[in-house]
Amino acid sequence: MKTANINIRIDPETKSNAEDLFSSFGLTVSDAVNLFIHQSLLEKAIPFQPRQPRYNAETEAAIQEARDISSGKVAAKKYKTVEDMFADLDAGC
Q1: Taking burial as the number of CB atoms within 10 A of a residue's CB, which of 24, 42, 47, 77 is the most buried?
Q2: Integer Cα distance of 67 and 55 in angstroms
Q3: Does position 16 have pLDDT exceeding 70, yes or no?
Q4: Distance in angstroms (rounded) separating the CA atoms of residues 33 and 44
Q5: Arithmetic mean of pLDDT, 17-34
Q6: Is the pLDDT of residue 78 over 70?
Q7: Mean of the pLDDT values across residues 33-42?
Q8: Taking the domains of the chain in order of start, what are their residue ranges?
Q9: Cα–Cα dist 32/82, whole Å
Q10: Where are the alpha helices (DSSP H) in the chain?
Q11: CA 1 to chain centre
């Protein structure tokens, strides 16, 4: 049986975690990638539903605020002193 090589780049920690996980199933990373590709071909789709990470409402609001500030939609809050900033942060709790 002929084989072809696929080279992928991944950070070392993720690779190590994947190796540990797949080895617990008796698989190599190469075996797992082959399973993924074969299952994708059988289903003619990605064999799982890709999703964005879900955050709680407070975190989602903070993410949106950061996006609005970085895009210039909203001006960032400015403080005259560090004490003013901490007072504002405490008021939000």
Answers
A1: 47
A2: 15
A3: yes
A4: 16
A5: 96
A6: yes
A7: 97
A8: 12-43, 57-91
A9: 51
A10: 12-23, 29-43, 57-71, 82-91
A11: 37
